[in-house]
Amino acid sequence: MDGIMHNNNMGSNIIGHNFQFPDTDSHLFTEMIHRFPYPVQIYSPDGTLVMVNSAFIKEFNVTDLGLIIGKSNVLKDPIAAEYGILQNVLDAFSGKAAHTTDVKIPVHVIKKFYNVPTENIEAFYQDISTFPLKNQEGEIICVVNILITRRRLYNRLEVDKAIAYIEAHWQDKFHVEEVANAVFLSTAHFSRLFKTITGMTPHDYYMDVKINKVKDTLLDTNLSIEEAFARCGIEYHGHYANIFKEKTGLSPSDYRKQIRKR
Question: Is the same domain home to 149 and 24?
């Protein structure tokens, strides 16, 4: 695989110029990463960022891939220790998998490291899984970093309180008036403010929370897909299955298959 797609097609996998996967299944690997529902970064053995997937591009609003691909080096990142992820990085590059939960990454760090716009957001709280991939000789060919954003902290108190309310009442039927009342704003003003700050409507955010809960519940293979939806207060039928696919890019069954490949 030669050094490859690095244009602004947001649907493409992005790979650095001088990186090659040595095995014959490289196309299958890049296709799997491209379709993976969570943000993924791939680092070469020297720590250079050589690939990100579509979910990463969407999550961090990346508009210029040239700012990060082939330029960011996680082993030379001076802030990794400050935010408790340095050991994960070192473990992965020494051949061991590592996982850290609920890591707070302030936006100024993301802007500095990735140089991407993150307006109105103060911090990301993420679960981070980092692990090496090895060839048959046991040599590390790349390190995979999976980022699962559990929540965002915005720079407006009303919005943060509304998000907390929605996340605490995600199993209830959604009424925007109730959320607006909880933050002492009129419904119209609250809806406009929420959309301006987060880029989505309150109901869209509520549905994101619902779908994320479904994604987590689908990890329990003792449950059928219908049972996983029911656990989250959603009936599994065409409408919600379509919403799930719209938000994840995969049907519920395909999502479960994809997660099993991890």
Answer: yes
Report DSSP letters for the chain, one per residue. --S---SS-TTS-EE-TT----STTHHHHHHHHHH-SS-EEEE-TTSBEEEE-HHHHHHTT-S-GGGTTTT-BGGG-TTTTTTT-HHHHHHHHTT--EEEEEEEEEHHHHHHHH----TTEEEEEEEEEEEEEE-TTS-EEEEEEEEEEEEEEES-HHHHHHHHHHHHTTTSPP-HHHHHHHTT--HHHHHHHHHHHHSS-HHHHHHHHHHHHHHHHTT-TTS-HHHHHHHTT---SHHHHHHHHHHHSS-HHHHHHHHHT-
Pair (40, 148) in one structural domain: yes
Mean pLDDT across the chain: 82
94 lies in the same domain as 216:
no
Query: What's the domain count of the chain?
Result: 2
Range of the domain at 246: 156-260
Does residue 118 lie in a domain region?
yes
pTM of the predicted protein model: 0.59
User: What's the pLDDT at 167?
Assistant: 93
Condensed to tens digits (0 to 9), the pLDDT of residues 1-20 reads 333 333 334 334 444 445 55
User: Which CATH number goes with the domain that contains 88?
Assistant: 3.30.450.20
35/51 same-domain check:
yes
Give per-residue pLDDT as tens, 27-53: 777 888 888 888 999 999 999 999 999
